């Protein structure tokens, strides 16, 4: 099912997600719903926090043809090279805004797959940036937190106005 994506400044986006105890069919259904929601948005990543499910589950697919789906359950990463790279980021929870964020360029990801099997993956470039962006979501952090307070407040004001208009027209 396509799920509703929470939008900044919704305080539920600040929730810290809990580790998954058992990778069971319920978690696999959540993963399938997350991929459906992500591809429909469209996006290249989605964290369970964004659909108001506070479990440490992330889906990613940076391919153009939905050919590289990645399931990240209880994901962790370590920085392999602390040289920072600037990249323009977007967020399905901050629709319509794209800003440059600096992050480490190479990381080692450790996570469980959709059958609960552990795996490791070395990532760089857009995939490394996306993994860090999604894991921030699981810790209640948003890419706007890396911007100046002035920019963040302007984005907040514009989105709050959009939400008021949507509520009025419902
Ligand atoms: O909010 C999210 O987590 C999804 C976000 C992931 C992300 C994008 C860019 C840099 C870091 C993390 C998005 O997918 S925003 C939409 C987007 O960037 C995109 C959408 C379609 C094709 C390509 C990119
Ligand atoms: Zn995001």
Order of helices and strands: HEEEEEHH
Overall 3D shape: globular
Q: Which radius of gyration do the C-alpha atoms yield?
A: 16 Å
Roughly how many Å apart are the termini?
22 Å
Bound molecules: the ligand O=C(O)C[C@@H](Cc1ccccc1)C(=O)SCC(=O)c1ccccc1, zinc ion
DSSP strand content: 25-35%
Residue share in helices?
25-40%
Overall pLDDT level: 98
Quick summary:
The protein is an alpha+beta fold.
Fold and architecture overview:
The chain is α+β, with helices and mostly antiparallel strands and 170 residues long. The protein is built from 3 helices and 5 strands; from the N terminus they run H-E-E-E-E-E-H-H. It has helices at residues 25-40, 125-138, 149-169, and strands spanning 45-47, 57-60, 70-89, 99-112, 118-124. It has a 5-stranded antiparallel beta sheet. The protein is globular. Residues 42-47, 89-93, 129-130, 133-134 line the site of the ligand O=C(O)C[C@@H](Cc1ccccc1)C(=O)SCC(=O)c1ccccc1.
């Amino acid at each position: 099912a396509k799920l509703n994506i929470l939008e900044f400044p919704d305080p539920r986006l600040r929730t810290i997600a809990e580790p998954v105890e058992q990778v069971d069919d319920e978690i696999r259904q959540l993963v399938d719903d997350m991929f459906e929601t992500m591809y429909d948005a469209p996006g290249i990543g989605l964290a369970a926090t964004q659909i108001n499910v506070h479990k440490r589950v992330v889906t990613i697919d940076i391919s153009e043809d939905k050919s590289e789906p990645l399931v990240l359950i209880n994901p962790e990463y370590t920085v392999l090279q602390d040289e920072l790279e600037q990249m323009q980021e977007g967020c399905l929870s901050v629709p319509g805004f794209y800003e440059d964020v600096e992050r480490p360029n190479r990381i080692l990801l450790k996570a469980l797959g959709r059958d609960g099997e552990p795996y490791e993956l070395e990532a760089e470039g857009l995939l490394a940036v996306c993994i860090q962006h999604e894991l921030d979501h699981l810790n209640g952090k948003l890419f706007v937190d890396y911007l100046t307070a002035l920019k963040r407040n302007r984005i907040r004001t514009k989105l709050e106005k959009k939400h008021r208009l949507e509520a009025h027209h419902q």
